[in-house]
Amino acid sequence: MKRILLSALIGASAIAAIPSAANASTTCTFDSAKRKLEVRYGAGDTRVTVRNGFGLEFRAGTTGAFQNCFSATGVMSSAANTDKVTIAAANSTAAALPQTTTIDESQGDFSSSNPKLQFFVLTGTGGDRLVVNETSSLDQVGVQNQTGGLAIGPAVDLDMDGDIDIRMTTGFDSVVQVNGNGFSDLLDASKLTVAQAVLIGGDGNDTLKGGSKQDNLDGGIGNDRFFAKDGAIDIVTGGTGTDHATMDFNLDRPSSVEQQDF
User: Fold this and answer.
1) pLDDT at 20 over 50
2) What span, in angstroms and rounded, lies between the C-alpha atoms of 165 and 177?
3) 179 near 219, Cβ under 8 Å?
4) CA–CA distance from 186 to each of 16, 32, 56 (Å)?
5) What pTM did the predictor assign?
């Protein structure tokens, strides 16, 4: 069972700083004694990805090699020896650029290596995007508002067990994107009102439920079910298969949706 939490920034002791290949201003620090890893955006960076590859790996931008992070004594951070990961905005007096933070499980499930592993994301002043790339198994993900702790931001329950696994601090006009990765996924943002939801089912017979903002729901291949009746202008894309959507009449924008209820 997954246990991944993105929450408020909790300070991590700076032990070793490793610049990324994509942009030398993005750094990581790993305190092996406290089992804490921090990846900090560089002042000019707008995209950072953390994945469970050969250890815990990070990359700034969308190209280039992923990097590992080491402590001062040469211990490499991995999902097994790290309990808290902080992904933080750059220390800068200038206004923060909109940032996209991706937590990528496509190479491996974090919680299977360490059920205690938690992620803490603190982004900029608004217009930021949190992307979750799911595993290639059947996924059930809920997206909602935070109910405690941080003042502003979305919360994500990665296994629909009632616990909040992801918290994100951000400003206004932000987006939460969840990418399913095969099988018949349930991606539910029906309780989300503080951010736009982008839900991409991928292959399989997916069920996608939008929130109260102008959401983008894309079922991909399969016979998908959409729920987008929320009074906002949503984009609903059925893709290949026989798809069924419950929508707002003369408001939502369906494409390749064979059955439509209003």
Assistant:
1) no
2) 15
3) no
4) 40, 36, 27
5) 0.85
